[in-house]
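Hallway conversation turned thread

IA: we were arguing at lunch whether anyone had actually written out Lutropin-choriogonadotropic hormone receptor end to end. Turns out nobody had. So, for the record, here is the sequence (630 residues) and right after it the structure tokens. Reply here if something looks off.
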Amino acid sequence: LILNTKNLLHIEDGAFRNLPRLKYLSICNTGIREFPDLTQIFSSEAHFILELCDNLRMTTIPQNAFQGMNNESLTLKLYKNGFEDIHSHAFNGTKLNQLILKDNRNLRRIHNDALRGATGPDVLDISSTALESLPSYGLEAIQVLNATSSYSLKRLPTLDKFSSLLEAVLTYPSHCCAFRNLRTEKQNSLLSIFDNFSKQCESTMRKPTREIFYRDDSYNTSLWAAEKNMYPLATDEESFPYSYSAIFDDSEMTGFDFEYDFCQPKILTCTPEPDAFNPCEDILGYSFLRVLIWFINILAIAGNFTVLLVLITSHYKLTVPRFLMCNLSFADFCMGLYLLLIASVDAQTSGQYYNHAIDWQTGSGCSTAGFFTVFASELSVYTLTVITIERWHTITYAMQLDRKLRLRHAVPIMLGGWVFSILIAVLPLLGVSSYMKVSICLPMDIETGLSQAYILLILVLNVVAFIVICACYIKIYIAVQNPELVAANKDTKVAKRMAILIFTDFTCMAPISFFAISAAFKVPLITVTNSKILLVLFYPVNSCANPFLYAIFTKAFQRDFFLFMSKLGCCKSRAELYRMNYFSAYTSNCKNGSSAPGPGKASQALLLLSALEKPYKTRRPTKKSHLECQ
């Protein structure tokens, strides 16, 4: 034992020479800077143990560091040192039973060929290290892998490298999904191959009269170990897939009285198990969602981008409805970007998400996606509410021009909405809830009271916004329904338009809010897997429908669209038709002196209907232009 000698800075080569009866060597808590020469020990003991610990100045393990130390079973306990790198062929010439590298917190790299030339190890412990990857060679013999608190180890080698693995204790639950899939595949393979032998498995067999093999808790002989490695994945309920009578001839069985239960082989276990928030599945889970999300995100991006482009490039005056529509389109465009990001990552990681889950959920990609969706959702709801209130205000005070909502009023209102939406989206990045909880990057973390209050605040505000929208449209409908104001066919048309708007809002908000509120109170009524259906089919409904309901389906937008296309050399005849119609209507109004509706009830009704049918208005003729027309 060499312990607690901080002043020991160097051990000369050959200091440990020809020690055939040495069983145990410990060098701990010293000031040694270079790895000592252990290659001339030549121990002949069957189970040699080397312990190197708390040597904080020792930074590397060189090539052939243990060659010649022992030719039998070797246990290396190399923990709590200053190791940063393990070189190629570091363990060459050894028969490793256990390789313990835990608590080497600076260990970031094990060379891919570090285990080349070595037999084993059976047990590998890399817990509490900074390793980012495991070597690609030499993992086939590992039966027990311990990698707890190895937060930098976000990816594992291909599963075929762990052909003998029986137990894995890992850091991230998603990594256990890989072994669960491996276990299922191998079980199915074994069942298909040995199905004809399974019925022959018996609970009792003849016991051998002389000891051929034995099994206890501490050691397994080669025969038992071979059987375990051959069938490590059968469950407790499954039978061992053969009996010796099906493999050996009767002459080979003579003299043996087997009485051993081979129907319960060792199973592959992995911890920690995946939880309800991160089940063993791809980001979107269902295959049909993987197709639908592309259709929905392309529709949302194309529709809202078109509306934004036409509104921004239009030569008409920027009115309050146009300004609000620009904000709504931008919010819904961001929602489309979120869906595109989720769909792209799902396509890239399909079938192997367990190996990308940590990088994705803890990286900037998921944080960006989460910010986009919360910001877009809140700004969209806020803008929809403002648009609805603006419509109600326009209709209610149609004849009071001094109370008309103008752009100088709308800008600070929307500025407040932007500040609120950005603040709500930033809070999970600052520790209030988290975007890292689930693969779809929504703030579902409700572990703390503050996070729970945050989720409830968002949901309550969305419900209140929906109630305000419904109330405003009901008031609008009551005003328009007055038989003194509007004809029955226009009354029906307005009712249908309002019903569509309210239905799309309800479809988007109701399912999400209902299940989210129950989950916020820690009484979830739906799994994360099923919630992804809501994410794709209901959550983006408004983002897809809004550009069509509030812009594209209106005549004013269609005119602006064709005028814009004519600038690009397309649809010139259609654009010219819109110009002629607009000029004819304008000239007619000038001649009749009716450029604006009169104060009567019928004129007010037409204005009410116009406010509903055209989300943004064109520039009215000025007084000067009216005189010029005359």
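OS: looked through it. Confidence is low (pLDDT under 50) at residues 186-194, 196-265, 593-630.
IA: good, adding that to the notes. The chain has two domains: 1-193+267-274, 287-553.
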